[in-house]
Amino acid sequence: MFCYRTLTRTPPVMSMAVNRSVVSSLFHRCKSLLNAQVVPHARCLSLGSFRLTDAVNPVNQVAEQKKRNEDVGQYTELVRDFLNPKDFYNALCTHGMDYFCGVPDSLLKDFCAYITTVTPKSRHVITSNEGQAIALAAGYHMATGKAGVVYLQNSGLGNIVNPLMSLAVSSVYSIPMLLLVGWRGEPGKRDEPQHMIQGQATPGILGLYVARKHMETTKGPYCLLVRRQNFLPFKLEKETGVYPLNREGALKVIVDSLKDRDVVVGTTGMLSRELFEYRVEKGHGHEKDFLTVGSMGHASAIALGIAQFRPKRQIFCLDGDGAALMHMGAFATIGQTEVPNFKHILINNGCHDSVGGQPTSALSDTFDFLGVAKACGYKTVIQAVQPEEISEAVTLMRTLEGPVLLEIKTNKGGRKDLGRPTRTPIQNKKDFMHFLAIDH
Ligand SMILES: Cc1ncc(C[n+]2csc(CCOP(=O)(O)OP(=O)(O)O)c2C)c(N)n1
């Protein structure tokens, strides 16, 4: 059995038991998570010894919320309020849940930043993909008897299907764990700031009691669905960068070094949004770029498929370190496929910058993307840092036989005022296919 409830500042919802047993049912479930009807809870649960801090003092909170809402203007997705990450974290620890793993999400970024800041490395692992986090929590449970907390964005539900259904569920190994799922794309979003009562409700924390009881009783996983606007802001400490460029700076040098007929596949997150805006700034069209808005980690395989069937074109995949790590198996597929026109450019800022800047494994000096690519069969691997080096490397890799990897090391961080593509995915695909059809 696998159960979930919504972590929300509106009245708590009834936890819903989902009893289907086949893998395909999880897909329905993922869908129903998105379309879930929020059912008012029949009764309130006791808060126990939980203490509200100043940050969630209802009076302060409404004032802070109003100010934040005004500050973010049109970017309504940035509007949030309510749950202090520290309080939620402490409440989890009170319930014996003090081991964390997962892939960060923008709706959870304040909570993830808090975990990253206060949890020792031995109790917090940012995994390469969400399925790995389920497996890690399973190992943790078997070693300690405790339930770990696995955080993810709902986009990662697909990645957890197999380990959840064939490992964790009560009917297989029966491994309790608490899933905290950021609910992107919730229908009908944008609530106004709520009133005094919401500050006292702290339903996410109330929900923890139910979660713990469920896991104790069923020895199975439990999922809390996290709506937008749940957590009060919590920022990771600012780092002084050691590199000359950030992702957008590097991206501009790359685009400036490409030729007219070069094909680009951009990875998930800010990179594709920056690419879209830079094309506008340069007066280009958008037909040269396929923007992989979802499918994190799959941009390189998309580019590979194109490269195989458009051999006269130079295909550039612009990847991120988090995305590349998520499906690093693609390196092996690429390395072992004969694709001379496949050119992989990986902007390594050492973090999941698009969803809050939590570090990836690629931040470490002991991690080596070039070594991985080489070992997988890439013909040439190059690293660049300075703008001139990047520009030279892009020019060079156009002439080299692929697969080739160029890793660019950059600082984290991007613009606050970054917009979103104004072309729809379907329009993007259509324009892109026309562009691919030239010269093939
Ligand atoms: C399967 C899946 N899990 C999580 C996410 C949320 N998400 C979007 S972008 C991103 C970070 C990407 O990191 P990276 O590739 O290093 O690029 P950066 O943001 O640092 O430029 C994450 C975790 C997602 N879109 N899909």
From TrEMBL:
SUPFAM superfamilies: Thiamin diphosphate-binding fold (THDP-binding). It catalyses: (2R)-hydroxyhexadecanoyl-CoA = pentadecanal + formyl-CoA. GO terms for molecular function: carboxy-lyase activity; magnesium ion binding; thiamine pyrophosphate binding. Residues 290-408 form the Thiamine pyrophosphate enzyme TPP-binding domain. Keywords: Decarboxylase, Lyase, Thiamine pyrophosphate. It comes from the Eukaryota. Residues 89-199 form the Thiamine pyrophosphate enzyme N-terminal TPP-binding domain. InterPro entries: THDP-binding, Thiamin_PyroP_enz_TPP-bd_dom, TPP-bd_CS, TPP_dependent_decarboxylase, TPP_enzyme_TPP-bd. This is 2-hydroxyacyl-CoA lyase 2. It comes from Desmophyllum pertusum. The lineage of its organism: Eukaryota, Metazoa, Cnidaria, Anthozoa, Hexacorallia.
